[in-house]
Each structure stands twice: as structure tokens, then as C-alpha cells.
Write a structure and sequence with these properties.
283 residues, alpha/beta, Rossmann fold, 7-stranded parallel β-sheet, globular
């Protein structure tokens, strides 16, 4: 197949490209700047310059690429700006979906997240509604996710990958990454809030496998949702930091983790790192 990969130079995209090429696919990677262009080219894909905020040019770029599938791995999180990322999910996705439809593409595989679900007692399955009634500190993020997923669902065939928190080399959770800085600054306490994780290599494998999955959302995370009481001390130790501050109380209702049963039992995707406990130490 011919794959148009938006976000090709990102932390997931850089892993997706070689995996696609090994399977015999032809990959066209979208680059916003020269550094991204060179990175994509060095991985063996065909790099093209473009900007998902330039709708007209993007449409022509996708049409010229003639892809069978458009893969959306775009984020805007290098600086930790969640507002910018929500904007990308809303506007960038809208433009990418419109460009795909204009080019006659039938299938899209898109990156989403698994912590936008509404509050509940257990890890959330894919039929759990998104948390659109959340408070103002969270609503912008959830609305960005909803806008992304609603746009992608306009495609004749679509898969939304609801990734757990990504860790591994190149992510926020490597020892020198953004969250290690937050920990050193005292901004990462150990709380009761539950998270689901996925190693970035496993996230990339899911993206490639999703080329053949039926339409729908899929939680892509490991087998062990965990409260901050458990995983934050492990991360501090990995980063060479003293014990974190423990915050007592009840978890936030939405901080419930995600259930990966559909991916494992129905679709046959099994995380290579079944728990963050072993995976984190690989960094």
C-alpha cells in the first residue's frame, strides 16, 4: 500500500516508517521544515514539505501523493503546550481529513489518547463516552480529542488509536525528558490518579497493524493501569531523583486508566512490554 504519513518525523512516526517499509509499503512522509524533511528522507521514506494548517496546499500534496491510506500521527507537544496540541487536533485534523477525502482516500489511521474518558470506577473501554462535561482545566484537551475523532470518523474506513501515556526513548518519560524536569522541579507528585502506559515501540506496532483493522476506536496500552503511588517512585528512581512527594486523597474520577481487551482479544495486538514496571527500565 501507499501510505501518506502526517507526523512522520515525530516520536511515533520515526518508528512507523521503517516498520511500514519492512512490510513492503510505500511511505510518503509530511515534513513541516527542513530538519523534519531530512529525518524522514534518512529513514527511507519519500519526504514532502507541507503544513497541515495550509488547507489548500495540503489538499494538493495529498492528491499528488495518491495514497491508499492516510496515517495521522501529528502532535504539537515538544514544548509541553497542550493548547497548541488541542489546536492541532482540531484544525490540523480537519484539514487532513478534508485533504484525504478530496484525494479519494478511503482509510485513515489516527493517533488519539486513552485518558479523555468520563469519570468511572474501572479502566475505561472504548464504548465509554469522552469527558465533555469536564471542568475548564481539562475541557480544552477533551474537546480537541473529540474534534479529532469526529473528523476522522467521516472517512469511509477509520481507526482511532487511543494511546496510553507514551514512554520510551524520545518521549516525555525518558530520563532526560520533560517529565523528569517536572519531577526535579517538584511538579510530579505521587497521587492516587491511575494512568495507563504504552511503550512507544508498541504504539508504532499498533499503527502498522491498524492498516488492516475494522473501523472503530482502540485502546492501545499495556496490561497494568497504575496509580501514581506506584509508578511515580519508579520513574523518580529511573531519573536518579529522591523519593517523590506523596499526595493523599481520592483519585480524580477521570484518572481511571484504560482497558486494552479489544486490542488483545479481538484484534490480536499484544503489548511487547506488558507492564510499565519492566518497560520503564529499558530507557
Amino acid at each position: 500500500m501507499r501510505i501518506f504519513l502526517a507526523g512522520a518525523s515525530g516520536v511515533v512516526g520515526r518508528r512507523v516508517i521503517p516498520a511500514l517499509l519492512v512490510e513492503g509499503h510505500n511511505v510518503v512522509g509530511l515534513a513541516r521544515g527542513r530538519d523534519s524533511y531530512d529525518a524522514i528522507d534518512s529513514l527511507g521514506a519519500t519526504a514532502v514539505l507541507g503544513d497541515v494548517y495550509d488547507a489548500a496546499t495540503l489538499t494538493e500534496t495529498v492528491r499528488t501523493a495518491r495514497p491508499d491510506v492516510v496515517m495521522h500521527q501529528l502532535t504539537d507537544l515538544a514544548a509541553g503546550d497542550r493548547t497548541a496540541n488541542a489546536r492541532l487536533r482540531t484544525i490540523g485534523t480537519r484539514n487532513l481529513v478534508d485533504a484525504a477525502k478530496a484525494a479519494g482516500v478511503r482509510r485513515m489511521v489516527a493517533q488519539s489518547i486513552s485518558w479523555a474518558y468520563e469519570p468511572g470506577a474501572e479502566p475505561a473501554a472504548e464504548d465509554t463516552p469522552l469527558d465533555l462535561a469536564s471542568g475548564p482545566d481539562r475541557r480544552g484537551m477533551v474537546e480537541g480529542v473529540a474534534n479529532l475523532e469526529n473528523a476522522v470518523q467521516e472517512m469511509p474506513e477509520w481507526v482511532v488509536l487511543r494511546y496510553g501515556t507514551l514512554y520510551g526513548r524520545g518521549t516525555w518519560y525518558e530520563p532526560g525528558g520533560l517529565m523528569a524536569t517536572a519531577a526535579r522541579d517538584g511538579r510530579l507528585p505521587a497521587t492516587p490518579d491511575v494512568s495507563s502506559f504504552v511503550h512507544v515501540d508498541d504504539a508504532a506496532r499498533a499503527a502498522v497493524a491498524a492498516l488492516h483493522w475494522p473501523s472503530g476506536p482502540v485502546n492501545i496500552c499495556d496490561d497494568e493501569p497504575a496509580p501514581g503511588y506506584e509508578w511515580v517512585p519508579v520513574f523518580y528512581a529511573l531519573a536518579g531523583l529522591p523519593e517523590p512527594t506523596l499526595v493523599e486523597g481520592e483519585r480524580a474520577g477521570w484518572a481511571r486508566g484504560a482497558d486494552n481487551t479489544r486490542a488483545r482479544k479481538t484484534l490480536g495486538w499484544v503489548p511487547g512490554r506488558k507492564s510499565w514496571r519492566s518497560g520503564l527500565t529499558e530507557n
